[in-house]
Design brief:
180 residues; alpha+beta; two-stranded antiparallel sheet; 5 helices; 6 strands; 43% helix
Length: 180
């Protein structure tokens, strides 16, 4: 145990706190070294990627004769996908949605659905009415004057049976109790 003090000491015994001395030189050297390490690693990975892609191109086999083409890989029609590049078949003919926003398909379909909802639909081959517009269907239904017979005993029996439910007292065999 020597009694001599070190010549280069950051500790000052006259102060009641420890000085905060930052070695800025070391931090700068570390940052430069880290940057150089990242650049060298990036360069080596780029070279490795080029070498591997060249090897893969040389070792590539000819395509298998049963490999499907791009058109054969598509799922069957109708393709229910909201994406540009597809067409929508409407009553006026197909609508090309290429180079449009992805929402364009929904907008065209919504317009077609609203037209069918309001005006109805006819079969293009036979000309027969497939569906009616909601207003016309309501008018036709009300014109038929469909009435339920209130005196029908079968309807009253069905109503009474529909109110019964199975209880635990019958061990699940009989629907005896009625709902209130």
């Amino acid at each position: 145990m020597g009694a001599t003090r070190h010549e280069k000491s950051f500790v000052t015994y006259d102060k009641s706190y420890e000085q905060n001395i930052i070695g800025l030189k070391g931090i700068v050297y570390f940052a430069i070294g880290l940057f150089l390490l990242i650049v060298v690693t990036f360069g080596l990975m780029w070279v490795l990627l080029r070498v591997l892609s060249d090897q893969a191109a040389e070792a590539a086999d000819p395509p298998h004769p049963l490999t499907m083409s791009e058109i054969e890989r598509l799922p069957p029609e109708p393709r229910l996908q909201v994406a540009p590049g597809w067409k929508v078949d409407t009553q006026e003919g197909p609508v090309n949605l290429e180079l449009t926003a992805p929402q364009a398909e929904y907008r065209v379909l919504r317009k077609e659905w609203d037209r069918i909802w309001n005006e109805g639909q006819k079969d293009p081959h036979t000309g027969t009415v497939v569906s009616l517009g909601i207003d016309e269907a309501t008018q036709r239904f009300l014109a038929e004057s469909a009435k339920a017979a209130p005196d029908d005993p079968a309807a009253a029996n069905v109503f009474l049976e529909s109110r019964k439910y199975i209880t635990d007292s019958s061990s699940g065999r009989l629907a005896t109790s009625t709902r209130r």
